[in-house]
Amino acid sequence: MPNSVPDPSGEAFARELKVAVAAAEEAGGMLRGRFPDVFQVRTKGENGDVVTDLDLAAEKIVLTRLQHHFPYDRVLSEEAGLLGADGSRTWLVDPLDGSNNIAIGLASFVVGIGLCIGDTPVVGVVHEPVTGHTWRAVAGQGAYGPRGRLTGPGGGVPESGPVLAWTQGHAVDRGDTRLVTLRGALERRCRRVLQLWAPLLGWSMLARGTIDGFVGYRAEGVDLPAGALLAAEAGVELRTLTGEPFRPGFAGPDEGRSFVAAKGAALEYVLREVAAALPRTP
Prior knowledge:
Layout: H1 14-34, E1 41-44, E2 49-52, H2 53-69, E3 74-77, E4 81-83, E5 89-97, H3 99-103, E6 110-117, E7 120-128, E8 133-138, E9 143-145, E10 148-149, E11 163-168, H4 177-189, E12 192-195, H5 199-208, E13 213-217, H6 224-233, E14 237-239, E15 259-262, H7 264-277
Parallel strand pairs: 3-5, 11-12, 11-13
Antiparallel strand pairs: 1-2, 3-4, 5-6, 6-7, 7-8, 8-9, 9-10, 13-15, 14-15
């Protein structure tokens, strides 16, 4: 991943990071205060995904801050869609990553905000309302959390196998042959494969080193750049399913958003398992 986009002020994206952290934490405070009280849930799309009034309330908080401080930037938000004119700077907002968890009373959800220049992430913020913790990264400046700099997992492979997070895009059919084959192989060869229903939570866990890796299959674009930046700045390597360097952008078809993220021996272990499950076609 490129180190940074040049900034003549000497400290790239300091203002953007400050605004994003404040927006995520304000939205998180609202979510923490209202969960698990009664709230409205409705389905969206044809794949069983849901949206709650908490999603919309959190989104309003984040968008208000971003549009006040950066009125000429585009914003792509989970519920509101694309806002603003074309431009090189795009804010990505997932105001409540984990809506399905909230809908069943599971306290596993985060607020995510990213900034991309073109299709390259330069700022990533993940806030966990339940704990009040915030993890943040700027391209080329490292990743940080409440206890200081994040260094990711150790990179070794536990005797029982690695613990992985898993994500797949909303549009992926459950009967997708590659999906079923890949997920089944990882389940057999890894200690745990966690489908958290909140990809940004998985990225923060990887950046903190509490899991060994993360595998995505045609992942959603709105939360991928912020989370991947957080992990990359913590020293995690990002690869495609075939082992090439992975560029975590939000644009383009979802077929380009399949990845393996890990370090050291754990990365090589997962890539070998993926290659065995999905051999390359001539």
